Amino acid sequence: MDLKTFADNDFDPKKWINKAWSTTGNQEKEIFVANTVTRLQLYMKQLSNSLDETTSQIVTSIPRVLQDASQLQLEGALLHQKLGTLEQQVQGVEEQTGHSIKSLQKIDQLKSRLENAASTLREADKWVALATSLEDILEAGVPTQKEKLEELAEQVTAMTASLEALSDSSDYEMKRMQLETLYNRLEAAISPPLLEALTQMDAGKYNTIKAGDSISI
């Protein structure tokens, strides 16, 4: 029995009955009607049961779908919260890293300044010791032995190098004038052997001091 035509918009019951009866070989109408009604009732019962079962499945699955949707919504909220926390942690790490880098830079700069200050102090102490030694030599009298004169020349050369190391100090000009004065006093007090020793040590620096210019290495 073809039941598909029941769903057609232009379904005609009379045509369907006549077509179904013609396929039975002109069976007795009463028998045909009884059999057809019985079969239709059976199909209706099966269809009703199928609809009930489908409806029950839908009704049963709705709470589970809603539960799944609620679970997904909850998981989405938790994920969003975790992402927010992670973003804050990343920002915190970036801020801490930035602060750490700045602190390291400040420490490095401070370290460099302290090292420079310590080096300047050592050179200043060295300068004072050399200047004091030369003053003592001038007061006691310049030696005439060749070995002593060479040591004296080395001492004057060391003062010149020390002065260059103190070129950025605030009293550089005063020290330069002091060294030039010591040169002049030594030149007036020493014999030709010392002049020869000084010029052999560094003729260029000796000539610079003599001319009254700033000392350079």
From TrEMBL:
What are the protein's UniProt keywords?
Coiled coil, Golgi apparatus, Membrane, Protein transport, Transport
Q: What is its main location?
A: Golgi
**Listed Pfam families:** COG7
Choose any GO biological process term that the UniProt entry carries and state it: retrograde vesicle-mediated transport, Golgi to endoplasmic reticulum
- GO CC annotation: what is one? Golgi transport complex
Topology versus the membrane: Peripheral membrane protein
Q: Which residues form a coiled coil?
A: 104-169
InterPro entries attached to this UniProt entry = COG7 (IPR019335)
Compartments where found: Golgi apparatus membrane
Q: To which protein family does this belong? A: Belongs to the COG7 family.
**PANTHER family registered for this protein in UniProt:** CONSERVED OLIGOMERIC GOLGI COMPLEX COMPONENT 7, CONSERVED OLIGOMERIC GOLGI COMPLEX SUBUNIT 7
- The protein depicted here goes by the name Conserved oligomeric Golgi complex subunit 7
Per the UniProt record, the source organism is Euphydryas editha
